[in-house]
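To make this tangible, this section ends with a sequence with its structure tokens:
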Amino acid sequence: MIVLQPSDLPAGWKSTPHRDPNAAAEQAALARCLGVSSIARQQVAKVYSSYFTHGNAYVPFFFSSATSYRSQNAADANLEALANSDGSRCYEKLLKQAIELQPGATMDVSFKLTLGSAGGPDSVAATGDGTIQISMGGLPSVAYYRVAFIDGPLITAEVDAMNIGARVPTSLMQSLVASVANRAALAR
């Protein structure tokens, strides 16, 4: 399996099965925003890892997904769409839609997509870094979001991470991305 596995994380992390009833709708909205809705017909399968959290808290968390395609052109087109000028804006919009706020809360999201491996494996096509500022009852909170997009033979994968109050440690993110990238490279 390409996605994150419990053995990829240090001791103390627990896994919870992936349950996001909105995942398909959110991915479809992102594909529409990026202009690649037609690529969905080229998908063979999509797999999600469990959510991995530390201790009893919901954050920090990590999860990943992998999508297989009928052709390498479809897989490449999906990642190339991120490179267009709307990639950062579309992902920012996705984050805004994915986060459910309590009544009266406000949110400001900024997200920057960067092409290239950012020091990771060559198969990392892009990375993203976001800040989510939420205010509830006048109390501000900041969440940090990171994502890496990975290219493999007939496959795209991503590793997502979020933490509140501090950025996800770069060394841990790089380790998890490398684990998924290595498995994606070997997939056939």
Observations:
- The longest strand covers residues 139-152.
